[in-house]
Specification:
5-stranded antiparallel β-sheet, 40% strand, mainly beta, 9 helices, 38 strands
Length: 697
Amino acid sequence: MSSLLLLAALATGPARAETADRVFVFVFDGVRPTEAVMANSEGPAWLKDLMALGVTLPDLRNRDATTTEPAHRTMFTGRRQPVSNYPWYEGRDLQRAISPTLFEEVAAQLGEETWIVGNTVFMDSQGTSLYPEHPGRWWPEEATTEDLSRVDDEALMLELQAAVDELDPALVLVNLHEADKEAHANRWEGYRDGTRQAVALVKAFAAANGRDGDAFIALADHGRHLDDVGFAQHGDGCAGCRSSWLIAWGAGVTDASSISASYELADVAPTIAALMGIDAPMAHGRVISELLADPPAAPLPADVLLDPVVASDDGVLHLVATSRARDIGDRLLYARSIDGGSSWSIDWFGGGDDASGGPLDLGGAEQPQVLAGAGRVVRLWRAFDRDEGWWRVVSQDSDDGGRTWSAPVSIADMVMHAANPGAALDPDTGVVTAIYSDQADGHTDDITGFNLLTGDIDGWDWTALPFAEVTADWQLHMPSAMSSLTLGGSWFGALATVEDAQYVEDNENREIFLARRLADEDAVTFHRVTSDEDVSYWPALGIDRSLGWPVLHAAWASLDRASDGSESWTIETAFSPDLGDSWSQPIPLDTTLWPPKDQAWRPSLVATDDGLRIAWVEVEGEVHRLMLAELGIGGPGEPLAVAEATAPIEGISLAALPDQDGVLVAWHEAWSMDESRLGLARVDLGLGVVETLDLGL
């Protein structure tokens, strides 16, 4: 059995532009730019021989966890996803991405292609994602059971040479890790010599195998601590660990020698896609235009918007979304409607030269949330401080229905890896509860710092909430998706997470937990909702008050694994008549009520005067359908199709329409890297009416 992980796929797809026939990606694991691409105390840059071959990007940032597996996941999906870096994987399932990988996109769009992934134990999860029915879905042809971290770079390159001679792959990922291993052992000479050896191996391979139509990329997945701390380790948000670099040469690459702008790891996947003449529609990064010989002709339009969130109060609708437009940068969109969504007023906030004011550096803004109630509107988001290298959770509030806003307030500073910040506004008490996850020391191997804050919107005096004692079996790792709501001073949050008892055995497993703080209690307590050992994701919460007493509902997507190895996403719900103390058994979405579908996922909930509404996405081949139904204790009722697209539908959000028997539905359709349509609709289930809306951008 080979010491490489060999992966292959067969697919048919559209013709592509012949920009680069093959792309070879060499990751110099943990080699920071202070030695790699800069002159240093020992002389010229260690990678000077590769820098002479093409263009160098010396400022490539890692905004994610600065460890190996999360960094590779970002590079090859184009979006940051909180995953573990647990180093010893014997006996575990693959820990795969939620969104499609670049390898799957190559298989789906290039036709019959084969490629290779290697080395180290971190690489076996980089190829196949958990995304349902992706046209390029495939499994490894061959995988080794030996500890690949013991294969040195020279032996790896010999294996690679043999595989390339036999398979002629279109896309290659190789992780060269000798320098990182030597650095972790605190051996400076070994770190230096390992880097220089990797340079020689890559240069020799490119010279021996390069042909017209080949492109080569060398980069680091993360850096490491700077010398005033010691170079041996990495994993937090310090400047050394956040810093990376990239060198490219060959077909489709610019003749320039350097790129002065700053980019990030999430930009690598869409750049490789552009280099190969394919698309990466679900990547959230931007193409590194300066790297390409034939860059995109124009900036992205302003309406390339992702992950909309909607809320309503007192006859006013509010919407926020993330902009991916190159000319807008890191700013966020806010839209307000006073006529049920027929027309909208638009402004931008959260970064750049926005009008929100305040002393904060608000670059890197993303993942906005909007809350409305009791005549107040609150918007929160996470913002990356480029100079300091850490995240903030930032908020603003409005007391005039969203017409004017307070200056931004940082409610959490020095957050290493702010994952999925969210919040809930209690209209009865005027208190906002904000939730986000983080790792205390920046490592994904350690117990997640699960953070909860409350703030009175009259004064924004934010206070961290205490937690009830958590036993060893209930340590929560990496909360990766969250939602929350309030009721009469009580707070409820749902999160998808791995508990400590199963962390090593099955790191891909995700269970749904309820976090609860009752109005008459100080501490937060945890209550388990699922125990099926499936991959459970996208938890949503809702409270049904139409029965005369409050019934708490949860919904989530569950990846069921059949005995034959097949997998299928489905929607499950559960209800609690006692506000989380006890839960019903999971209730699968009943597909006998309407025409069959292949898979269903991404649920969203909202409470209306006459009960709950649930929305989700059904995937049938290349067709994505956005569905909406009533939700009761027996599960969802018969649904109504809100939208249909041959592009992935994501970012579903619901809001109850004021003075109407209906809901506002928002979503985005990821058609391509340059087109992501934001969808809006008013839906009345009782009348079976879907009325599409437009922001008017």
